From TrEMBL:
It is found in: Nucleus. Coiled coil: none annotated. The lineage of its organism: Eukaryota, Metazoa, Chordata, Craniata, Vertebrata. GO terms for molecular function: DNA-binding transcription factor activity, RNA polymerase II-specific; RNA polymerase II cis-regulatory region sequence-specific DNA binding. GO terms for biological process: cell fate specification; positive regulation of DNA-templated transcription. This is T-box domain-containing protein. Residues 48-70, 71-201 form the T-box domain. It holds the Pfam family T-box.
Length: 206
């Protein structure tokens, strides 16, 4: 039988996802369930925190620092496809550290993914989300009912079925880069967070 969303559920992001944060509005944003009297998975809603800021970045092409060369190139002030895509990386899912929790708990505060880390190391054993550099990604957030979470694993695909609801926000699409390519992105990030590590020696690979 279908359980109330007040029952325990997982909130997670997968390799193609990433909702961020709290400490600074910048490499951050966050997703959180919208309070309402809900009784089914279909009624669950998630909204993007700092959506206006995400849109400002999206309008000029959000970039996230990562290492290793890839299949996009920034040329003449725009991103262009520059070859075939790389082979898929091992699947990774980021399970929110507060999971399992009741729907009431998730709705009590912003659900932050500020501890989520990206890597291009395909042999990573730290549980980070593995991505290719110079590729474009669409973050996705999944809310999973407790009875669907038994097979949930950081290294397996997200379960499917009536007990899973997925959300994505087009304005959170980002391109992974070795160093910021678009000066407008650098300026906007510095304006929002002058202490961000990625701005120091931004011409070097990390």
């Amino acid at each position: 039988s279908e359980q109330s969303t007040g029952s325990d559920s997982e909130v997670l992001t997968e390799r193609t996802s990433c909702s961020f944060s709290t400490h600074s509005d910048l490499a951050s944003g966050a997703a959180g369930p919208v309070p309402a009297a809900m009784s089914t998975m279909e009624e669950i809603q998630v909204e993007l925190q700092c959506a206006d800021l995400w849109k400002r970045f999206h309008d000029i092409g959000t970039e996230m620092i990562i290492t290793k060369a890839g299949r996009y190139v920034y040329h003449s002030s725009k991103w262009m496809v520059a070859g075939n895509a790389d082979s898929p990386v091992p699947p990774r899912v980021y399970i929110h550290p507060d999971s399992l929790a009741s729907g009431d708990t998730w709705m009590r505060q912003v659900v932050s993914f500020d501890k989520l880390k990206l890597t291009n190391n395909e042999l990573d054993d730290q549980g980070h989300i593995i991505l290719h550099s110079m590729h474009k990604y669409q973050p996705r957030v999944h809310v999973i009912r407790k009875d669907f979470s038994s097979d949930l694993s950081p290294t397996k695909p997200v379960p499917v079925g009536d007990g899973v609801k997925t959300f994505n926000f087009p304005e959170t699409v980002f391109t992974t880069v070795t160093a910021y390519q678009n000066q407008q992105i650098t300026r906007l990030k510095i304006d929002r967070n002058p202490f961000a590590k990625g701005f120091r020696d931004s011409g070097r690979n990390r």
